[in-house]
Prior knowledge:
By secondary structure, the chain is α/β, with parallel strands linked by helices. The protein has 7 helices and 9 strands; from the N terminus they run H-E-H-E-E-H-E-H-E-H-E-H-E-E-E-H.
Amino acid sequence: MTAGTASARSAPSGDPVPLGQGYAGVGYIQDGKDFKPDTRPLQLTPQGVVSPDFASSPPPGIDVSHYQGTINWASVKAAGIQFAWIKDTEGTSYKDPDFNANYLHAYNNKVIRGAYHFARPDLSSGATQATYFANNGGAWSADNLTLPGMLDLEGGCYSKSVSAMQSWILDFYNTYKTKTGRDVVIYTSASWWNSCTGGWSGMSSRSPLWAASWTSAADPVIPNGFPYATIWQYTDSGSVSGVSGAVDRDRFNGDHSRLVALANNTA
């Protein structure tokens, strides 16, 4: 299989993603198929269907893992990409083999970068996984170029109840914040969050939301419980100079100064 192609990145069929094969977006399509539609009456509030007033000219970004193969970060920067989140860890035993190189080369080419952890709530506690993440590349420093870590939540509910999943996420958040001083960014889709957490509002005042919403619309669909999205993954089939094959494309909800403020915790 060739890195960066659709054949190299297969989606789960309902069972947990095999360890090491998770990446941001792996469960997006299957999550939308597996979960039953929300039949409650639509509430036309900022917690409704779309993120209100998403930035009209947002800083562009990408998210990557070893599936993209070797990346030319100088070309990525020259193409106008301002930020990138890079897969780091999964569970408590897996580290992406390309993380160290990607994280360093993005930094050296002045791409504002962050690390992300693919959650495996079926394998261990949120605290255990947050500790593994923070100790293996997911930490943070105020240097204009490092974003807070991201927690990737997708790929089914891992046989957890709504209350158990809420507790797992909060356990991860609290531990990560204790170890790094930062609020972890939450990546998820409306389908996953509404089903697996019950549309929980408990993280809206704690974590920036990164909404997975693959659409050509002007705004992303966001989960219940969040007033807006800070980052938007709008496609899994983008192209960027310096990356071979398909790559996830993202937008930041603000201007470059706000992106730097998120990096430096001065927002």
